[in-house]
Amino acid sequence: MKRVIKYGSLLVVILLIHSNSWACEVCKKQQPEITQGLTHGAGPQSNWDWVIIAVISAITLLTLIYSVKYLIKPQEDNANHIKQSILISLENE
């Protein structure tokens, strides 16, 4: 488990440091203030775009929360269940 956290943290740092992960100067000028410098392209053009972004973000966040929740506490008593084998392998690292 420590190795997963170590390499995951390293990957995040590398992606944040990498210059191509940030928007170029032209794209910074095209973006609204809230997303300026974060992404390439023109950015959201209308209020409906912001609604779509909010819905997609909420779905993604809920998916992440439930994935972690059911991986940590699978609520399965069967020792042969796939979730149990994942937890055992993470504990042995």
Q: What features would you describe in this structure?
A:
The relative contact order is 0.09. This protein has four helices and no strands. The longest helix has 26 residues, at about 45-70. The model has no long low-confidence stretch (mean pLDDT about 80). By secondary structure, the protein is mainly α. The radius of gyration is 19 Å and the shape is elongated. Helix content is about 65%, strand content about 0%. It has two domains: about 1-40, no CATH class; about 45-93, no CATH class. The termini are close together. It has helices spanning about 1-15, 25-30, 45-70, 80-90.
Short description:
With 93 residues, this protein is mainly α. The chain contains 4 helices and no strands.
Distance separating the two termini: 6 Å
Number of domains: 2
* Residue windows where pLDDT falls under 50 for at least 5 positions: none
Q: Give the H and E element order.
A: HHHH
Tell me the layout of helices and strands.
Layout: H1 2-17, H2 25-30, H3 47-72, H4 82-92
